[in-house]
Amino acid sequence: MIKDLSKKAKESASVIYCKRCERVRAPAGYVNETEESLATILAKALCGGKCKVKVILFDDKSATVNLTYNVNGDDVTFKKVVALKMEHQICISCYRKSSGYYEAIVQLRGDPFRVEKMKLKFEKFIGSRSGFISKIENEDFGTDIYVSDKFLAKAFFGFYKLAPKVSYTLYSVKNGKRIYRNTYHLLLE
After folding, report:
1. Gap between the Cα atoms of 11 and 82, Å rounded
2. Is 148 strand, coil or helix?
């Protein structure tokens, strides 16, 4: 039975890394490389998710894993060495960062001290939620912050119970759907 299951499982698997942030591509998107994330990737690649994988050892060329199949209510576990092919790509987040992508502009205006304080709060909020800031422009009357995700910008204002003025600019049309960029204008006095 173990020989049949071992033959059923593939002999090799591809692991895709982002060459900038070095996260690995799992079924749910790019994640940090851990034993659990590697086990999830290998389970999908080796047995289509029909087995459980525990990684024992791995390097850039191979992995030693325990594969566990459930056969008629009983768990059958065996050890297997699989060849790994490391592929390097750029994840969507790193691509967007490098291209200056943004969905919203946050305009902070008013007292320079309060603008700077709010800018620091905003940067911390966005950074702690996997967003990024494409660029910051210091204007005559304040600061413009270009943000990767308009929903994170909106969440920031909700979190601090602020009510900025909001405007929308049509950016493009994709598959018949209009895509807007939001501008949030906050006056700090």
Report:
1. 5
2. coil
Q: What angle do CA 86, 77, 59 make, to 5 degrees?
A: 20
Q: Is the pTM of this model over 0.85?
A: no
Structure tokens at 94: 């790193």
What span, in angstroms and rounded, lies between the C-alpha atoms of 171 and 182? Answer: 10
Q: Which two tokens stand for residue 18?
A: 């982002």
Q: DSSP per residue over 16-49, as a string? A: EEETTT--EEETTEEE---HHHHHHHHHHHHHTT
Q: What is the pLDDT of residues 66-91, one digit of tens each?
A: 888 888 888 888 888 899 999 999 99
- Residue 3 pLDDT greater than 70, yes or no: no
The answer to whether the Cα torsion of 168, 162, 123, 25 is positive or negative is negative
Q: What is the pLDDT of residues 85-95, one digit of tens each?
A: 999 999 988 99
What's the start-to-end Cα distance of the chain, in Å?
74
